[in-house]
Specification:
The longest helix has 18 residues, at 71-88. Helix 1 packs across helix 2. By secondary structure, the chain is an alpha/beta fold. It is 26% helix and 28% strand. A five-stranded mixed β-sheet has the order 3-2-1-4-5, with helices on both faces. Strands 8-7-6-9-10 form a five-stranded mixed β-sheet. The chain is globular. It has six helices and ten strands.
Length: 225
Amino acid sequence: MAIILSIETATTNCSVSLSKEGETFALKEDYNNGFSHAERLHVFIDDILKENHIDKSEIDAVAISKGPGSYTGLRIGVSAAKGLCFALNIPLISVSTLEAMAHQVNITKGIIIPMLDARRMEVYAAIYNANYQPIRGIEAEVLDETSYAKFLDKSQVYFIGNGVEKTKALITHKNAVFIEHKLPSANEMGVLAFNKYKKSDTEDVAYFEPYYLKDFVAIKPKSKR
């Protein structure tokens, strides 16, 4: 019975879960403390294991939300996951942040577009059908009034993620459904991680890097005079 610890730190939600054979049975997360992952992540991991009476030696793999998302958040999550994998000699599994987020939407027909806020009017988005099969891969795109028109003209389109607020301000199509105040969560990672685990679809712990989608740009602080 494979037990997988999943870690999600791509946005402000610090989230960890435990799953068995793909079914999540424990979740610990906090939407409301900003980017406090460095202080909270290891505490959450220790707490969820202790609360469920699971020793670290019982974990069969660690799954990490690989991005896109916050550069700092992703680095913290990946570092923690790698440390556990090295120490326990267990596999590292990467899960697409947007694919896991799509699984928060349960529909029988239509299109799902998970999206994360980027700079200005830009989002990181991917497109899935009702069965969570990818229609279009992850892209960084600038939104305007015509974005996703070819999908909206054919069926309902469910937008989810912290990119929804800026999307809602632009797109007024009758088929647009906006699911607000949602962030990526480790809750949906278990089934995706287990599917990879069964196929031994794992990462090289030493060389794995998050999927930033864009190069990190450090902004120099303004000089004080």
